[in-house]
Automatic annotation (TrEMBL):
<comment type="function">
    <text>Involved in peptidoglycan biosynthesis. Transports lipid-linked peptidoglycan precursors from the inner to the outer leaflet of the cytoplasmic membrane.</text>
</comment>
<dbReference type="GO" id="GO:0005886">
    <property type="term" value="C:plasma membrane"/>
</dbReference>
<keyword id="KW-0573">Peptidoglycan synthesis</keyword>
<feature type="transmembrane region" description="Helical">
    <location>
        <begin position="122"/>
        <end position="142"/>
    </location>
</feature>
<keyword id="KW-0133">Cell shape</keyword>
<feature type="transmembrane region" description="Helical">
    <location>
        <begin position="328"/>
        <end position="349"/>
    </location>
</feature>
<keyword id="KW-1003">Cell membrane</keyword>
<keyword id="KW-0472">Membrane</keyword>
<feature type="transmembrane region" description="Helical">
    <location>
        <begin position="85"/>
        <end position="107"/>
    </location>
</feature>
<dbReference type="Pfam" id="PF03023">
    <property type="entry name" value="MurJ"/>
</dbReference>
<keyword id="KW-0812">Transmembrane</keyword>
<feature type="transmembrane region" description="Helical">
    <location>
        <begin position="370"/>
        <end position="389"/>
    </location>
</feature>
<feature type="transmembrane region" description="Helical">
    <location>
        <begin position="177"/>
        <end position="201"/>
    </location>
</feature>
<feature type="transmembrane region" description="Helical">
    <location>
        <begin position="43"/>
        <end position="65"/>
    </location>
</feature>
<feature type="transmembrane region" description="Helical">
    <location>
        <begin position="149"/>
        <end position="171"/>
    </location>
</feature>
<dbReference type="InterPro" id="IPR004268">
    <property type="entry name" value="MurJ"/>
</dbReference>
<comment type="similarity">
    <text>Belongs to the MurJ/MviN family.</text>
</comment>
């Protein structure tokens, strides 16, 4: 398990480095101001969908179904699912593009009118990253079932590489629309690199799956979607509240979240390996794997939490553009770090239930916790300002 986890974690960390480089270059080129805030508001919805899928939203629903399917049926099943989710992604992209003015107004109510208009233009382009995200998520399912985690773990790196190259090349002259288009290229790369492997598993573009197979996936997916949606709803509420706290607040909160999420996203490798190993196992075997995973997870998270809390001012000074260490970011980072251990436990425990085809128990836990957090997010910033967000 550790060998597979290590390979996937290394691939994920490479993507995290590219993602952190993207954030660093964005602030270095544009500063922590209104322009960056507007782009991050436009980026929120596509990025939320990508993060949910990277966390195993589709694979958790589809892995048990793929493993139960007869080997002769699997090529038809895979081909049908790819076509179905590509079409779903295109439909969702068109809907988001059409509703872009409304969505930008909801996510960033504190943006100035000119920044809001630019955010709408950016979101229209970014919406069309979604078909690539969904297709990539489907293509990873047979790879994970076969224990081949490395290639599927390169998605974040491939997605972030084109914008990093563009921001590094354009510098302070970087244009929001060109940057959005570079993200579109990255989303296409995520899926394209997996198609040769899909061909090996029997995918053919002219094959079609049965409607009942799509219905099975959707039945498994709805509880997962509601659970992930609750988590992203909290992130949306946090982004909305930050936009009302003044220029640059969205950028600072986003950057603190990015830094804190690095250990959590790195642990997705362990979670996905565990999901692949637990799927199809008996209850006792799943329980033993889950206990082992919790032990590894706790040891891996305690050190990053302590480190982030103790050296956050030094970390901000050394790793981020000049000037940010004098603001609220170091303390924000230290406060957000407390969530790492609990977040890692939640993700791993959820996969224990997913492997047994139980998607409802994690949903109930997620919704109850999210409800408490939402109430606190609405109340505390009114009295504590930006310090109420962590």
């Amino acid at each position: 398990m550790l060998g597979s986890t290590l390979l996937l974690t290394l691939a994920t960390l490479a993507g995290l480095v590219a993602g952190f480089g993207r954030e660093w270059l964005l602030i270095a080129d544009w500063g922590a101001g209104a322009k960056t805030d507007a782009f991050l508001v436009a980026m929120f919805l596509p990025e939320a969908i990508r993060v949910m899928l990277a966390g195993g939203l589709l694979s958790a629903a589809m892995l048990p179904l793929w493993q139960r399917a007869d080997t002769q049926i699997q090529p038809l099943w895979l081909s049908g699912q790819i076509a179905h989710w590509l079409a779903a992604g295109l439909g969702l992209a068109l809907a988001i593009a059409a509703a872009a003015p409304l969505l930008i107004g909801w996510i960033g109510p504190g943006l100035a009118a000119a920044d809001r208009e630019r955010g709408v233009e950016v979101l229209i382009w970014l919406a069309f990253t979604i078909p690539g995200f969904l297709t990539q998520a489907v293509l990873t399912v047979p790879l994970q079932a076969a224990g081949r985690f490395l290639l599927s773990g390169l998605g974040s790196l491939l997605f972030n590489l084109p914008p990093v190259v563009y921001l590094g090349w354009a510098g302070k002259q970087a244009d929001e629309i060109w940057l959005a288009q570079s993200f579109l290229v990255g989303s296409a790369l995520m899926a394209l690199v997996l198609f040769p492997s899909a061909w090996g598993f029997g995918w053919r573009p002219w094959l079609a799956g049965a409607k009942g197979e799509f219905a099975q996936v959707w039945r498994q997916l709805w509880p997962l979607l509601l659970s992930s949606g609750a988590s992203q709803g909290l992130a949306l509420l946090e982004r909305l509240t930050a936009s009302l706290l003044g220029e640059g607040s969205v950028t600072l909160v986003n950057l603190a979240r990015k830094l804190v999420n690095i250990p959590l996203i790195a642990l997705m490798g362990l979670n996905q390996v565990l999901l692949g190993k637990m799927s199809g196992e008996g209850e006792q075997s799943r329980l033993r794997l889950m206990q082992r995973g919790l032990s590894i997870c706790t040891r891996l998270t305690l050190l990053p939490v302590a480190g982030l809390m103790l050296i956050s001012p030094l970390l901000v000074t050394k790793l981020l553009p000049a000037g940010l260490s004098q603001g609220p970011l170091p303390l924000l980072l230290a406060l957000f770090a407390l969530s790492i251990v609990f977040g890692s436990w939640n993700a791993l425990l959820a996969r224990y239930f997913y492997a047994g085809a139980d998607t409802r128990t994690p949903l109930l836990c997620e919704l109850s916790g999210s409800g408490v957090q939402a109430v606190l997010l609405l109340a505390l910033p009114a009295y504590l300002g930006i310090w109420g967000l962590p």
